[in-house]
Amino acid sequence: MDFSEKLYQRMQSYDMGLPSPLQIEDFTDGMIRFMFPLRCGKKMTLTCLRDEWERLQRLFVEMLSSLRRLADDELPEDLSQSFFAAISSIHEQLLEEAAHFLRCDPAAKSVEEVLMCYPGYYAIAIYRFANELYRMKVPVLPRAMSEYAHSKTGIDIHPGATIGRNFYIDHGTGIVIGETTEIGDNVKIYQGVTLGAMYVEKNLQDTKRHPTIEDNVIIYAGSAILGGNTVIGRNTIIGGNVWLTESVEPNSVVYHKAEVVIKSKKIKKK
């Protein structure tokens, strides 16, 4: 038996039936283009939008049909109908968040700029789609969509996280938001922030492992907040490079105090 035959036999045990990566990328990008046609670089006619809507629905059913881990009573067509019925409310929320980005960032000059240029906004948009699928208990696909957004932005948001309205990510690179994270409304986070678990063990699969961030919290760059019992109270500011594994009362300011030493490079004359 040559190696190709061995490889084929080994891979049979992993054949769960999955959409191709190209299908997933096409669907993910297609949803963004459909929701925000200006990303196409041209005006979309009503006919074009309707054609794309129908194409995305067909593609979605095709991807679901390849998932062998769907329950016997879950029909791809029914799941597709449920998912696309939620798109209108997701779109309204995303437009609200785009306006919120414009209010938060003095460098942003228009909502169009946010829609076109902001990786944090893109990652949030994909999260909203993926989270809907996650709550519908669709296997694999929501995680694959989130990882596609991760690969393009450096922002890793698990589709199982619970995130409220007007979530704002500035810069974004290196952000990690774990599966059981709960984030309230009007929360701002900056690059390099981790909302993670204290440690990882398989037997913790069905427990809350990641922190809760209440409304109106700001978390600055490089901070790590860990643990399922860790709650950051509303209206709190977390400074940069803070390591937190315990809860913080509302209306707090938390910062890491480091000594900064400045020395002159001038050479003293003897």
Number of structural domains = 2
Helicity range of the residues?
40-55%
CATH superfamily of the largest domain: serine acetyltransferase, domain 1
Low-confidence stretches: none
Q: Biggest sheet: strands side by side, in what order?
A: 1-4-7-10-13
Question: Helix segment count?
Answer: 8
CATH class type of the largest domain: Mainly Alpha
Strand content: 5-15%
Structural class: alpha/beta
Gyration radius, in Å: 22 Å
CATH topology of the largest domain: serine acetyltransferase, domain 1
**Arithmetic mean of pLDDT:** 90
CATH architecture of the largest domain: Orthogonal Bundle
**Sheet with most strands:** 5 strands, parallel
Write the element-wise H/E pattern from the N-terminal end onward: HHHHHHHHEEEEEEEEEEEEEE
Distance between the termini: 80 Å
Number of strands: 14
Principal-axis shape equals globular
Description:
With 270 residues, this protein is of the alpha/beta class. The chain folds into 2 domains: 17-154, serine acetyltransferase, domain 1, CATH 1.10.3130.10; 161-270, UDP N-Acetylglucosamine Acyltransferase, domain 1 (3 Solenoid). Helices cover 41% and strands 12% of the residues. It is built from 8 helices and 14 strands. The radius of gyration is 22 Å and the shape is globular.
Task: Give the tags.
5-stranded parallel β-sheet, 14 strands, 270 residues, serine acetyltransferase, domain 1, UDP N-Acetylglucosamine Acyltransferase, domain 1, alpha/beta
Layout of strands and helices, then pairs:
Layout: H1 3-12, H2 21-35, H3 46-65, H4 76-85, H5 87-104, H6 111-117, H7 119-135, H8 141-153, E1 156-157, E2 162-163, E3 168-170, E4 176-177, E5 182-183, E6 188-190, E7 194-196, E8 212-213, E9 218-219, E10 224-226, E11 231-232, E12 237-238, E13 243-244, E14 253-254
Parallel strand pairs: 1-4, 2-5, 3-6, 4-7, 5-8, 6-9, 7-10, 8-11, 9-12, 10-13, 12-14
Helix pairs in contact: 2-3, 2-8, 3-4, 5-7, 7-8
